[in-house]
């Protein structure tokens, strides 16, 4: 061993507590830095997850509203179609629709024709309203396109 190496070894032996203390301070600082970095990453990931969950919640609320509006519109549409079907059946199943030549048209048959016409008119109005509802509530893009991912 040369003189410098021996002196360094002697210094280390003589200052063992000081070297160990310095090493512990350095290791502690490194651990604190790593902990800070991990905490910052965790907080950023948590903010991203919270934003994603909030976006998903908004998407679900909007989609529920869309479903409710279209369900109500479909119910109105079915009711209008049912009225047309019932008016049509009442007219064509009426025994008074068949008459002998020269007999006047029964007023009940005329009333059934008027009800059928009114049912068709109402049905067309509802169809236009329902088509507007469908246009106003289109199928949204999937949540992955709107919200991304965590």
List the helices and strands and how they pair.
Elements: H1 3-14, H2 16-92, H3 107-136, H4 143-147
Helix pairs in contact: 2-3
Protein described:
The structure is a single chain. The model has no long low-confidence stretch (mean pLDDT 88). 83% of the residues lie in helices and 0% in strands. The protein has one domain (3-147). The protein has 4 helices and no strands. It is mainly alpha-helical and 150 residues long. Helix 2 runs antiparallel to helix 3 (107-136).
- Specify Rg, calculated over alpha carbons: 41 Å
How far is the N terminus from the C terminus?
Answer: 60 Å
Biggest pleated-sheet summary: none
Which structural class is indicated by helix and strand composition?
mainly alpha
| Helix content bin | over 70%
Task: Provide the β-strand percentage band.
Answer: under 5%
The number of strands is 0
Mean pLDDT comes to: 88
Instruction: Count up the domains.
Output: 1
DSSP summary: helix tally: 4
Query: Segments where pLDDT lies below 50 for 5+ residues?
Result: none
Anisotropy-based shape: rod-shaped
Output the helix-strand order.
HHHH
Keywords:
150 residues; mainly alpha; 4 helices; 83% helix; 0% strand
What's the gist of this structure?
This protein has 150 residues and is an all-alpha fold. The protein is built from four helices and no strands.
